[in-house]
Design brief:
mainly alpha
Length: 101
């Protein structure tokens, strides 16, 4: 029998890991999905925190300027825009029967 309530109050109850897992497994699917999302969020937060700490500990690159970064970002944005235009044109051509190149 799956637990349907999203809130349970049990004062002074201690659960071991296996007992907690059994409770989670007995939840309905939407509740299990929410538990999985909450665990994934905690994991991602920890990974990002670690990554930020690692990046902060690195010495900045001396051969890379803000202007270099700006140029690279603009170039990538332009390339992405060009690709999107090609996709739209290609889609438009396919959508028009009898269109010849």
């Amino acid at each position: 029998m799956a637990l349907r309530s999203s809130e349970v109050t049990i004062p002074n109850v201690r659960l071991g890991l296996e007992e907690l897992l059994a409770v989670i497994q007995s939840l309905d699917e939407p509740s299990r999905v929410r538990v999985a999302q909450a665990l994934a969020e905690v994991e991602m937060d920890a990974r990002f925190k670690d990554l930020i700490q690692q990046m902060a500990a690195r010495a900045p690159a001396e051969d890379l300027t803000d202007a270099d970064i700006d140029r690279e970002v603009q170039a990538e944005r332009g390339a992405a825009a060009d690709m999107n235009r090609r996709i739209v044109v290609d889609t438009d051509l396919r959508a028009s029967p009898g269109t010849r190149l």
